[in-house]
UniProtKB/TrEMBL annotation:
An example Gene Ontology molecular-function term: oxidoreductase activity
Taxonomic source organism: Kribbella soli
Protein name per the record: FAD-dependent oxidoreductase
Boundaries of every BFD-like [2Fe-2S]-binding domain copy: 502-554
Gene3D superfamilies referenced in this protein's UniProt entry, alphabetically: 2Fe-2S iron-sulphur cluster binding domain, sarcosine oxidase, alpha subunit, N-terminal domain (3.10.20.440), BFD-like [2Fe-2S]-binding domain (1.10.10.1100), FAD/NAD(P)-binding domain (3.50.50.60)
Taxonomic lineage from the root: Bacteria, Bacillati, Actinomycetota, Actinomycetes, Propionibacteriales
Amino acid sequence: MSGYLRPRSGDPAEIGTPTAVDVTVDGRPVAAHAGQTVAAVLLANGRDTWRTTRVHDRPRGIFCGIGACQDCLVTVNGLPDVRACQRTITPGDAITTQTGAALPTTSSPAATVAEQGRRGFEVVVVGAGPAGVAAAVAAGDAGAEVLVVDNGRAVGGQYNRQLPAEFAARRPDRLQHEWKVFAEQRDRLVSHPRITYLPDTSVWAIEGLRLWAQTGPADASGRQPFAIDAQSVVLAAGAYDRVLPFPGWDLPGVYTAGAAQALAKGQRIAVGHRVLVAGTGPFLLPVAESLVGVGAHVVALLEANSLTTVRKGWSSDPLVAPSKLREAFGYGALLARHRIPLRHGWTVIAAHGTDHVEAATIARLDSDWRPIRGSERRVDVDAVCVGFGFTANLELAVSAGCTITTGPDGSPAVAVDADQQTSTPGVFAAGELTGIGGAALSAAEGTLAGTTAAHHALAGSDAAGTASVRGAVERGRRFAAALARAYPVRDGWKSWSTADTLVCRCEEVTRGQVEAAAQERGLNDGRAMKLSSRAGLGMCQGRVCSRTVAALLAAPGDVPEPSMKRPIAVPVRLRDLADAEVAESPETVLDTMEEQ
Ligand code: FES
């Protein structure tokens, strides 16, 4: 037990008086208020585990915090497999803990959704983070009728994660960087006469330029299915944290850095009292800032790369270095103010505890990230937040047949041309999908993709006037390249795990089992490994483990090729699709939402 809700008094966001909501957990009434997610309610009430795994009854709670990993599944009002981090509570919710993952209640094929009631849009944008918002506004400004669909309840994505409106925060701006820029773009999107915005909506498949979507509360039963035909599609689905395995990384109390950030910024929940932040990349700094903002004590921030590597990387591009230096000073002052030690060349190599993290072992790393013998130290913590870069949400791009390449940091990315056009005609991509490069690059790519997607849809329209945004994209890509040089992921991470360390959290497959399968059966690709060992075959469909498995299987010097094929891009209940007699059009969905 370690998570807690930040007290309202003194909160810089000036949270309003919350409306109490009646919910029960395993039959007992618990404190809850409007706008909280199920995960936030559970953590605020002292529960950080609420599920056991299918194979070995291991305890599970929240891990990724953004709907990718499926660790936090819970039963709500009798409906199993609801992602607690994604679902907002409603009055009367009966939350019950869950064992394993429930099986589908029907095997009817998704294709039973009738192909009626569709309406075309000229440009459909998937995602409402910095890239998606910029793309939608640019496409709307260029004269296209635009539909934006997004999993989230509010505009902003992970980067500009918003407090729920129900929190009635008077100063939400204090939790955001570059609030003015964001607020202006958000307001333009929601008030634009040619833009239709559908929150709480997931696109689960793409066929050509037709998208299949569902709208309604996350993972609820009866989400409305509908199909959308587009002239152009802009994919801007963002990314999620990459975590490298170490002994104990599946203990409750180990979170992705993104989960800690999402809970702090979006729910005012601290994941622990004494928190260790570890990994690589500048994202760890705002995570530490957010943790401090909800009252957690950050015992240390461990950057795995040496200070020399980081300095060299940033200073390799004179265009990038000055801005990073300014930012570094700002965060340096914050860390000093809160007495948070920043250690370069260190990381966490083990988490300890029975049902929850009680301590962690940290170690100094050599230049290849191998722990230096004798440097190990044990620190008492009740939460560990880890992040080693990001993995893009490539499911829809892969399903659309887009060529996948390697981004500047070595992670899989969508290949695009100078207009953000993918190899699939009419499908454009922007933001983290094309390579991890931060919010400014995402927004610039979004603007360019929105403009060129509109040009493609409105054949003959003028896509001129993009010189300045192309310049911004170019600068952003230089930043991305410097970022990759400053924060590389070295192969020595493979030495942190043992044969007993889980590699696949969902199917509870160990590193030893993966390596044995590789040796005994000569398997060297993720798909064969999946079928043989079950690593990657679990509820998250390999989102968490596929890059790790691919890296373990890759020969020295080879670029790992993780399995990215997930024809069903997000969790969807087969029963909902089978029950749907008529697929709604986006307009019908909007009308229904307005009536409710
Ligand atoms: S961790 Fe989810 S399938 Fe492997």
